[in-house]
Design a protein that fits this description.
Lipocalin, ten-stranded antiparallel β-sheet, 4 helices, globular, alpha+beta
């Protein structure tokens, strides 16, 4: 399984849960930058570098400890570190800047589709913003599998993950 965060489902259907970070709950001040997250991720044996900077400056990593293959399906966790100050997001009208995101997605390599399972954005203060897609799929099962857009970052990830050998 791996972590990556690319929500291809319309925001209208996103179900977010916001939780304060462990650090803030325990009196620690956190102020990470995208560079801090990149250094930490690159020095970890758990995360394999899977994509260089995109035009937007994003960099992606695959969690090699949680990667699973089941026939033509791949269960992957990916991490995407955003460039600069991060990416502005909105949760129920509350704006925040995500500096990185971790997503669990199942890739169907035969049908060139993907299904997001869980996605977690993190801001520079260590706060997490979670989207649990299982709740969405129980209400809207037709939304589970999404087609990958040709030429997109999603297609790059699908190709990489479908060709990845453990």
């Amino acid at each position: 399984m791996r972590n990556i965060k690319f929500i291809l489902v319309p925001a209208l259907f996103s179900l977010f849960i916001v939780s304060p970070s462990y650090a803030e709950q325990n009196g620690y001040e956190v102020n990470n930058t995208t560079q801090d997250i990149l250094k930490e991720t690159q020095s970890s044996e758990r995360w394999e570098y899977i994509m260089g900077k995109t035009k937007s400056g994003y960099q992606g990593f695959l969690d090699i400890e949680r990667f699973e293959i089941d026939g033509s399906k791949r269960d992957a966790w990916t991490k995407v570190v955003f460039a600069g100050e991060g990416v502005e997001r909105d949760h129920n009208g509350k704006k925040y800047r995500a500096i990185y995101s971790i997503t669990n997605r199942i890739y169907d390599c035969s049908n060139l589709k993907a299904a997001d399972i869980k996605s977690i954005d993190y801001d520079s203060h260590g706060n997490s913003y979670t989207t649990d897609f299982k709740k969405l799929y129980s209400k809207y099962p037709e939304k589970k599998w999404i087609s990958i857009i040709p030429g997109s970052l999603g297609e790059y990830l699908l190709n990489f993950i479908c060709e990845y050998k453990q």
